[in-house]
Amino acid sequence: MSLTIGLDAMGGDAAPGIVVAGAARALESQPDLAFLLFGDLPRVEPLLGQHERLRTRTTLRHTPDSVAGGAKPSTALRQGRNSSMRLAVNAVKEGEAAAAVSAGNTGALMAMAKFVLKTLPGIDRPAIASVLPARQRPVVVLDLGANIECGAEDLFQFAVMGEVFSRVMLGVSKPRVGLLNVGTEELKGGEVVRGAATMLRESRLAIDFHGFVEGTDVTEGVVDVVVTDGFTGNVALKIAEGTAAMFTSALRDVIRGGGWRAKLGYLLARPAFAVLREKFDSRRYNGAMFLGLNGVVVKSHGGTDAVGFAAAIAVAADLVRKGTNQRIIDEMGATGAATIPVAAATAS
Fold it and tell me: Quick check: 21 and 306 in contact, CB under 8 A?
């Protein structure tokens, strides 16, 4: 039995090179994978020729169309019907692929995925979720940009999806869920976040609702799942990425300009730095999930390399194998939502 993943070969800053190389790397660790690769044949086929095993596990479908990085989602949805991104999503809808992975335009990918696949029962809006490093263990954060404005019901649904994801994907037996707020006191925040807190406290679901958390609590690991609206989540993510980049750059400058003592100190501490670099390597956490869709779609960071893209493929495969969507349906069913068939994985 093989698990087929649809890949947008033309999405991302360094596509199609990192897509093909990432697929080859993913195949090394998961030999049962197969790929449907959508992209410009003259550009992609020579790259496939460099990876003999990958070539035998890949079906390449030609399309000269791709979605530009700066394209508006509405424009991409209207004009990108034959784009590599759209065809990868269509493959999930048609049952040819178990999941789709793209490093292309996030807004366009979300628009296409929601239009083609629709949402799961009980879910009004899909959310972008990702796993971020924290002091004790990784933490799930959502929404990271799909929904700029949210209501209390949306945040409640995000909490349910995030809790399921933490249990299924990260193996946390009883995930602690928190709502991101400007303070931890019950009277803090606006009507929406306080309304969501009330819904979670009164829910019949067995969710371990911690209450409100502040920004500093996210990396401290106070909770396992952090829920917020897409505007706040995206800003927080970009600040975290910028801070990490600034710290790395500043440390490099200090070592280079600090003379022989600084260089000696670095050499002595290099094993510790290696462990730290491994723990906070953004490529390990690459692969943002579009939770709430009736099908599996994973967004890779547009500027990633082959290692990061392989990680995104692994996330997609894991979501399918662990039946994350069905688990979300089961949880939402406990709140009274109806059930619809989930897009099935492709086995061959």
Answer: yes
What percentage of the chain exceeds 70 in pLDDT? 91
- 8 Å CB contact between 92 and 127: no
Q: Residue 39 phi/psi, 5° resolution?
A: 180, -175
Predicted pLDDT of residue 334:
56
- The values of phi and psi at residue 72, to 5°, are -70, 145
Contact 139, 226 (CB under 8 A): yes
Average pLDDT over residues 239-265: 78
Tokens of residue 342, six digits: 């989930």
C-alpha 98: how far from its chain's center?
16
Read off the pLDDT of residues 110-130 as tens digits, 9 standing for 90 and up.
999 999 999 988 889 999 998
pTM above 0.70, yes or no: yes
Q: What angle do CA 129, 180, 296 make, to 5 degrees?
A: 10
For residue 273, the model assigns a pLDDT of: 65
Reduced to 3 states, what is the DSSP secondary structure of residue 221?
Answer: coil
pLDDT of 332:
72
Integer Cα distance of 237 and 250 in angstroms: 20
CA atoms within 13 A on the CB side of 188: 12
Which parts of 30-105 fold into alpha helices (H)? 41-48, 52-56, 73-79, 84-93
* DSSP states of 285-311: G--EEEETBSSEEEEPPTT--HHHHHH
Q: Are 235 and 201 in contact (CB under 8 A)?
A: no
Burial 186-203 (b: 16+ CB within 10 A, else e): eeebeebbbbbbebbeee
pLDDT in tens, 290-324: 999 999 999 998 889 999 999 999 999 999 999 98
Under DSSP, is residue 7 helix (H, G, I), strand (E, B) or coil?
strand
Rounded to 5 degrees, what angle do the CA atoms 170, 172, 175 make?
115
**What is the rounded distance in angstroms from the CA atom of residue 282 to the CA atom of residue 53?**
28
Distance CA 68, CA 72 (A): 9
Within a 10 A sphere around the Cβ of 107, how many other Cβ atoms?
Answer: 18
